[in-house]
Amino acid sequence: MTSPRRGHYDAIVVGARCAGAATAMLLARAGLNVLAIDRKPYGSDTLSTHALMRPAVLQLWRWGLLEPLLKAGTPLIETTTFHYGDDEITIPLASGSDLPGL
């Protein structure tokens, strides 16, 4: 484990998963000196969510993060399946002018 750096920070974000990482990124983009800390090491297997809905994917696009994720091989979700007992219904997810999928 690396030792924390000493210095001046305008903001310290405790918890660097989805919400904390986004908060730290936005503060840093606004010009603040930010430290984001988390008790888990980078790349832990802790899931924050199983899927991102359209508003979250749209936010990634607005932040300029969607294209790098797609280039890294992250698959878009283009259908969703509902299970009702033994019945299964699969429907396509319409892409919008803003997003190619979820």
* Rg calculated over all Cα atoms: 18 Å
Distance between the termini: 36 Å
Number of helices: 3
Largest sheet: 2 strands, parallel
Q: How helical, in percent, are the residues?
A: 25-40%
Sequence stretches where pLDDT stays below 50 over 5 or more residues: none
Please tally the β strands and state the result: 4
Morphology call: elongated
The whole-number mean of residue pLDDT values reads: 84
Please tell me the total number of domains.
2
Estimated structural class? alpha+beta
| Fraction of residues in β-strands | 15-25%
Quaternary form: single chain
Q: Which series of helices and strands comes N to C?
A: EHEHHEE
What is the spatial order of strands in the main beta sheet?
1-2
